[in-house]
Structures are given as structure tokens and as C-alpha cells.
């Protein structure tokens, strides 16, 4: 039975969509696109049933238009089999701020270059401090696709669904359950790509590589089998593993071999992983200097190339994944393609572009800095200058100031969106993903997945301490 909020939404959209028998049929695509700005605000900031109704309509309208959350698993498997010869690296984009307007910029750039191979992701930590549960993030991205006339599969990814080593040491069952809970929530929201990160449990003190990687491959395998038990019918979720924690020791072929031997022995008949994240010299958010600027980071592209080739030839995966890359100089991005990197994760630079944009009022920026000084003071390291502390910690202000940024004047959001679009267009060109729409359509399908009619408001996500988790 439809809620009053859904009935009201149907009345507002009368003549634009037909809602019947638990489905949405789009009658006027252009008119619906024009209503997205208002509808997505209901999906993010609405009260109770209105929020749930808006998210359901956005999801079902996207299904009707052929804009469907999908898994990139088969695409990566095809690359592992050598069936994809086009040099490229898939960008995985974390949208921490103004997700709807940022996603609109992504889709505009994607349409210009005919990009189909791109991922929208959010990490376990980001879900917490940006105040974006998976269903909200999915609604913002799908609404942006509708608004910009994008068609085709949309890849939503749970990034760094990570085990906290500290919490695991104190209460392993509780921490495992927390990751399982976010997996279930994310899959229900259309996240059919999930990166499991148990690399935090790699113990370099152990005498053998097998023992160093043991907890990592055992839990990654267990989570992979758990995901397979919860994936929708007809969808093989793309699962990623990780062998080297970002910011720690660079990964080696021997590390990968030890991890995969243990992982494959434990997973049984369950479908395995489609990619592997490694460490090559970067750190999340970049290395912040005392004046608040970023140090130049040297990525070992030979490690990327060697492990990508090994992942494909020996294990049938799409290749290796690079994290923490958005703050690299522009001249570095084409090297990921040359190294045959499967996927590269990009986040902090987009947050910085939004926060530091000239269209953002100075008083709003000052208010955020003062909030950080008061509410994130415990994150300040003894040797941090104030500039270092503010740069590293200001992401924690994203959630508390989410509505303020979403509520910026239209001209300010348009100016920020235009600069984001330029950035995404540049990155897509450097990463070689232009012209991949047809390739994606040829290799994989995105079956329809319908959600039940909302029977009330949105269930609040579990509030958890995400300090110490990777972005």
C-alpha cells in the first residue's frame, strides 16, 4: 500500500510519470529531468515518508529509463581474459560534497566523451563523516543521471569497506558484524561493486608471507562468500580485495601470490574477486606539508604494471587498483594507463575544489574552519601546524555543513559544477575511458531490479565511530 507521501509525489508528477503496480513509467523525460532538482532535495533532506518516497521514485524512474545500477565484474573478467585491448584505467570517483551537483558534472563530462566505464563510490568512513547513507548516495547519483540525460549502467561502489584493526583486536565479532551490516545496506541500495579492505590486518612481524597475509585473506574470503549470499538474482557483484594498506609498505608479487593462494583455498566454489588493491607509495589525501600544501608523491608505476599483469594472467582479474591518486600532478594520470592499471580511486581533490572554490562565501569557509578547530581537535597530531591540521581534518565538517553547501545560490553551484566538469573531462581523457560506452554495453548487462513500495520513512543508518578508517 502506497504511503501518503508517495501519493503526493505521484500527484506532483502527474502527466510526467505513471505509478502503477509498484512500477514507474516515465511519460515525459524532459519534464522529469526538470523536476529532479526538487525531487532529489526531498530524497536527501525530506522528512520521514517524503524522503523514502522520493528515493523510490528516483530509483524506479531510472530503471524505466535504462539507468540501472550494475556490476562491473564481467567487464573486469573480460579484461582478465585478454578480450579488451583498449588501453584505459577506470576512474572510481568519491563524491563527498554536493553529491547531486557533482554527479551532474561527472555525467556531463561522460556524455561529452562517451564514457561508460566509470564508478561512483563512497567509503565506509565517508558514509559516516559526510552524512550520506548508501541509499541517499544512490538517489543523488541516479537523479543526476536522469537530470543530464545519461543512459546505461551506473556503477555504484562501496569503497574501503574496511576492518578497523584496533576494533577487531578488541572485539572481532562486533567489527565483522559492522562490516557485514554495511554490506547488506549497500547492496540493498544498488551498490553492486564492493571493495573489501582487510589489509589493515596484515601483520608484517610474522615470519612468512602466508602468515603475514593470513587474517587478510581469511576475512576477505569470508566477506566475499557473504556478499555472494546476498547479491540480487542475475547479478555477480564485483568484489575487490586489498593486499597492502595505503600509506604502508609497497606491495610485491610475493605478497599477491601469498594472498591469492590463501584466498582461493578458503573461498570454495564462490566466485572470487575481480581486482586487487595494492600499495605503491601514495597516502589518502596526500602528504600535507607544514604550510598546508601537498608534497609531491612518487608512485612506483613499475609495481602497478607488474602486479596488474600478474593479476590478469595468473588469476583472471581485471588488474591492480591504485588508491589515493586524486592529489597527484596532472602529468601523472596518463601513466596509470601505460602501467595497465585496472582502476584508480579519486576523492580528496574534488572535495578541495568545492571547499576552496571562489564561489563559496568566505564566511561559510571560516565557519567550517572554526567548527574543525572545536570539534576535531582530538585529531590534531603533536607536530601538526595549524594549516596541516585544518587541511587533514576539514573533511569531518562535510556532514555538518552538507545542507549549507547544497543550499548555495544556483549561480555558485553552477560555477562549481562547471569547474568540476572540466576536471572530470581532463581525467577521463587522461585515463583513456572515452568511447567506452559501447564496450560496456557489449560485455555486460544491467538487469532491472525493482524495489518494494516504501512502507514508511527511511530507516536511519547505524551511527558509528569511523575514526581511523581509510577514505
Termini separation: 40 Å
Indicate the CATH class of the largest domain: Alpha Beta
- Any guess at the CATH architecture of the largest domain? Alpha-Beta Barrel
Strand order in the sheet with the most strands? 4-5-6-7-8-9-10-11
Approximate shape = globular
- The overall pLDDT, averaged over residues, is 93
Count up the domains.
Answer: 3
**Biggest beta-sheet profile:** 8 strands, parallel, barrel
Order of helices and strands: HEEHHEHEHEHHEHHEHEHEHEHEHHHHHH
Please give the number of β-strands: 11
Find the structural class using helix and strand composition: alpha/beta
Low-confidence region ranges: none
Rg to the nearest angstrom?
21 Å
CATH topology name of the largest domain? TIM Barrel
Number of helices: 19
Strand content: 5-15%
Helical residue percent? 40-55%
* The CATH superfamily title of the largest domain: Aldolase class I
Entry summary:
With 471 residues, the protein is α/β, with parallel strands linked by helices. It is built from 19 helices and eleven strands.
Could you describe the 3D structure shown?
The chain is α/β, with parallel strands linked by helices and about 475 residues long. The longest helix has 22 residues, at about 210-230. It is built from 19 helices and eleven strands. Helix 1 (about 5-10) packs across helix 3, helix 5 packs across helix 7 and helix 9 (about 170-190) crosses helix 10. About 50% of the residues are buried. The strands form two sheets. It has an eight-stranded parallel barrel with strand order 4-5-6-7-8-9-10-11, surrounded by seven helices. It has a two-stranded antiparallel ribbon with strand order 1-2. The protein has three domains: about 5-65, no CATH class; about 70-355 and about 420-445, Alpha-Beta Barrel (TIM Barrel), CATH 3.20.20.70; about 360-395, no CATH class. About 50% of the residues lie in helices and about 10% in strands.
Amino acid at each position: 500500500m502506497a504511503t501518503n507521501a508517495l501519493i503526493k509525489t505521484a500527484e506532483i508528477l502527474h502527466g510526467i510519470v505513471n505509478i502503477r503496480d509498484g512500477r514507474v513509467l516515465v511519460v515525459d523525460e524532459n519534464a522529469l529531468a526538470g523536476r529532479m532538482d526538487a525531487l532529489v532535495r526531498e530524497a536527501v533532506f525530506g522528512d520521514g515518508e517524503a524522503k523514502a518516497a522520493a528515493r523510490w521514485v528516483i530509483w524506479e524512474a531510472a530503471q524505466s529509463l535504462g539507468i540501472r545500477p550494475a556490476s562491473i565484474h564481467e567487464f573486469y573478467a573480460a579484461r582478465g581474459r585478454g578480450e579488451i585491448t583498449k588501453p584505459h584505467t577506470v576512474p572510481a570517483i568519491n563524491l563527498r560534497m554536493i553529491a547531486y551537483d557533482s554527479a551532474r558534472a561527472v555525467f556531463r563530462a561522460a556524455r561529452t566523451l562517451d564514457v561508460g566505464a566509470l564508478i561512483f563510490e563512497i567509503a565506509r568512513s565517508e558514509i559516516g563523516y559526510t552524512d550520506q547513507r548508501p541509499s541517499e548516495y544512490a538517489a543523488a547519483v541516479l537523479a543526476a543521471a536522469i537530470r543530464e540525460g545519461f543512459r546505461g549502467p551506473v556503477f555504484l561502489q562501496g569503497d574501503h569497506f574496511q576492518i578497523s584493526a584496533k576494533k577487531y583486536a578488541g572485539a572481532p565479532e562486533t567489527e565483522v558484524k559492522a562490516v557485514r551490516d554495511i554490506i547488506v545496506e549497500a547492496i540493498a541500495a544498488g551498490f553492486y561493486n564492493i571493495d573489501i579492505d582487510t589489509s589493515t590486518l596484515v601483520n608484517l612481524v610474522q615470519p612468512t608471507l602466508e602468515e603475514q597475509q593470513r587474517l587478510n585473506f581469511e576475512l576477505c574470503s569470508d566477506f566475499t562468500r557473504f556478499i555472494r549470499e546476498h547479491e540480487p538474482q542475475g547479478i555477480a557483484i564485483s568484489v575487490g580485495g586489498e593486499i597492502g594498506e595505503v600509506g604502508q609498505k609497497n606491495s610485491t608479487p610475493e605478497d599477491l601470490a601469498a594472498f591469492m593462494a590463501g584466498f582461493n583455498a578458503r573461498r570454495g566454489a564462490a566466485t572470487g574477486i575481480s581486482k586487487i588493491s595494492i600499495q605503491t607509495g601514495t597516502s589518502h589525501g596526500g602528504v600535507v606539508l607544514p604550510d598546508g600544501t601537498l608534497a609531491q608523491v612518487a608512485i612506483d608505476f613499475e609495481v602497478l604494471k607488474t602486479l596488474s599483469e600478474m593479476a590478469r594472467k595468473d588469476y583472471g582479474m581485471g588488474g591492480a587498483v591504485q588508491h589515493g591518486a586524486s592529489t597527484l600532478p596532472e602529468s601523472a594520470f596518463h601513466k596509470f594507463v601505460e602501467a595497465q592499471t585496472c582502476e584508480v580511486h579519486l576523492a580528496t581533490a574534488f572535495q578541495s575544489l568545492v571547499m576552496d572554490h571562489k564561489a563559496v562565501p568566505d564566511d561559510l569557509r571560516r565557519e567550517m574552519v572554526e567548527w574543525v578547530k572545536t570539534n576535531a581537535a582530538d585529531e590534531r597530531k603533536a607536530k601538526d601546524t595549524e594549516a596541516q591540521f585544518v587541511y587533514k581534518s576539514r573533511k569531518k565538517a562535510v556532514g555538518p555543513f552538507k545542507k549549507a553547501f547544497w543550499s548555495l545560490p544556483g549561480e555558485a553551484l553552477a560555477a562549481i559544477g562547471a569547474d568540476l566538469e572540466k576536471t572530470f573531462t581532463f581525467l577521463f581523457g587522461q585515463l583513456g575511458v572515452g568511447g567506452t560506452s559501447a564496450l560496456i554495453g557489449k560485455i555486460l548487462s544491467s538487469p532491472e531490479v525493482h524495489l518494494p513500495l516504501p512502507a514508511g520513512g527511511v530507516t536511519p543508518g547505524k551511527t558509528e565511530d569511523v575514526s581511523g578508517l581509510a577514505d
